[in-house]
Amino acid sequence: MGRIQLEKVSKSFGDVEVIPPLDLTIEDGEFAVFVGPSGCGKSTLLRLIAGLEDTTSGKVLIDDADVTQVSPSKRGLSMVFQTYALYPHMTVRKNIAFPMRMAGLSEDEQEKRIMAAAESLNLTDYLDRKPGQLSGGQRQRVAIGRAIVRDPKAFLFDEPLSNLDAALRVGMRIEITEMHARMKTTMIYVTHDQVEAMTMADKIVVLQAGVIEQVGSPLELYSAPKNLFVAGFIGSPKMNFIEGDEASKHNAKTVGIRPEHIDVVESGGAWTGTVGVAEHLGSDTFFHVHDTGLAETLTVRALGNVALNHGDTISLSPRVNEMHRFDDQGLRIA
Amino acid sequence: MAIVAQSSKYGRVSRATLAWVVGLLFFFPIFWMVLTSFKTDADAVKPEYLLFFQPTLENYLNMTENYDYWRFARNSVITAVFATIFALAVGIPCAYAMAFNPSRATKDVLMWMLSTKMLPAAAVLYPMTFLTKSMGLFDTHFLIIVVLMLINLPIVIWMLFTYFKEIPKEIIEAGQMDGVNTWGEIREILIPLAWGGIASTALLCFIFCWNEAYWTVRLTTTEAATLSKLIEGNRAPEGLFFGRLSAVSTAAVGPIVVLGWFCQKQLVQGLTFGAVK
Q1: I need a surface site. Which of A331, B96, B204, B220 has the fewest CB within 10 A?
Q2: Residue B186 touches chain A, beta carbons under 8 Å
Q3: Which residues of A touch B176 (CB under 8 A)?
């Protein structure tokens, strides 16, 4: 079991309130991702759940038990840190065994779990090495191994992949997602990378300046962002925002349209512009279009290879029913 | 690196010369002391025997037979060892708390600790003597151990604090997440990781305790008297017993010089305050 609830939890450092009181529930077995720009308080929120920071007010509940005053060591949670935080003086085996040794598990049980974890994480050959002799990806695996063997109520991941190179990041992302599907343990994952959030989460919590902007499944956030911030943050490339006459036509202060919802047509499209940069990826083509009279740059995503280049005139047809409308407060108009 | 590579030969030679001059300057008194310790008291003051003389072990034999050198040495070892152990026992948890759970007052506390070293010892000589005598602690090992521990505690805590600061906070936090209590964290994670720093702190503290003379001379008579007291006891105003004094001094600083020699690397690391990782 691992149901985590935050009730009116707030955090201040001195006079600075980094997290105003907020409520949040993460259900047992859920994969929740906290996402937001750096400095939005997502790591602080995770550390409040872990107990590594004291709450300024409010309650943290794990399986309905109030753990607000309980030390991190007694909350039954495991954490994987951005910097891995392995014990450099211990071998991989001892690193993984450490939480079990502290919990007083028998040697046999320890060995059994070490071997199981090492096997699932491809670490069997490295058990007698020290962390300093491992690559970044291997170190992160050890950190995950150390978290798994405790059999925790929930896993907390604090930007675990941001120190890895791009290729490794994608691989680890899939491994962690598979691990969650297999173990069905609650996971809370902090990242500033919205792609990670979209691909891994059951539930995304979008944060800005310590405030929860929206909570929902990846597709809910994609198709119905509550406000301009979420609309701009979720989705890659970013949603285009258009103000002025075009927005007024749709009875909104701002309209947003995602690059994939603008079709490139031969001629006669509603919008025309000049191609500034064309990024030909093979599978897709991204156009950064200027001189549309709508916004400084419109980003357009076309499937496959479209043979237009810098300086060419491009005709565009937006899918009006995919447009998002926002009022002058920046909130979504239903 | 490029700048170092380009430094002129002249610069290197002058730096080396300067280092040798300074080194010899520091070494000379020790050399002189050792040399004098092998002269008779009479020879020690005669200019014609400055460098060439009939060496004698008389001073050393005299010292062990008549002055009970070994008792003073034993007291020095006991007080320095226990004072160092207690200073670490207090200093490690203290530096741990300040390094990993700092509060707004941490900086002030550190400064305040250091400020206690600014108080002239003589200012508290009378109350210390009076108090220790009335409490029946005068001339006891216990008193000397406590005094040595207390006067070295600020530097011990400062050094340990600097070392502990170099350990990433996440490693300590990982320990907390892994279910370790505070003592477990200190024992299992902090001490093994900061071992080099703790060892050089201990070594420096031991040396300071061994060499301390102000309080060990004034708060002891016979029972807890250390080697500092033995040297002081052989001091004569006219310098009539230079040979004897030199022998006692050599025997007093000998052990610590040998210890320092063997632990040179540790010691240098300790004094550069963790600049060497």
Answers
A1: A331
A2: no
A3: 51-52, 71-73
Per-residue pLDDT tens for B33-68?
999 999 888 888 788 877 788 888 888 888 888 778
Tell me the sheet residues that pair with A271.
Answer: A316
Domain parsing of chain B, residue ranges: 70-233
**B114 to each of B96, B152, B156, how far by Cα in Å?**
17, 10, 10
Q: Determine the distance in angstroms separating the CA of B181 from the nearest CA of chain A, rounded to an integer.
A: 7
- Give the ipTM: 0.85
Residues A150, B179: C-beta atoms closer than 8 Å: yes
Adjacent-strand bridge partners of A241: A256
Residues contacting A229, CB < 8 A, separation 6+? A206, A208, A213, A330
CB contact under 8 A, A88 and B171: yes
Q: How far is A88 from chain B (nearest CA, A)?
A: 8
- Separation between Cα atoms, residue A257 and residue B86, nearest integer Å: 70
pLDDT per position as a tens digit, A221-252: 999 999 999 999 999 899 999 999 999 999 99
Taking residues B18-33, what's their average pLDDT?
Answer: 93
Domains of chain A: 4-231 (3.40.50.300), 238-326 (2.40.50.140)
Residue with tokens 């198709």: A223
Confidence tier at B275 by pLDDT (50, 70, 90): very low
3-state secondary structure B112-160: HHHHHHHCCHHHHHHHHHHHHHHCCCCCCHHHHHHHHHHHHHHHHHHHH
Fold of B70-233: MetI-like fold (1.10.3720)
In eight-state DSSP terms, residue A321 is G
Q: Roughly what angle, to the nearest 10 degrees, separates helices B58-66 and B69-100?
A: 80
CB pairs under 8 A between A and B: 60
H-run or E-run covering A134: none
Sheet containing A16-26: give its strands across: A16-26, A4-13, A57-62, A65-66
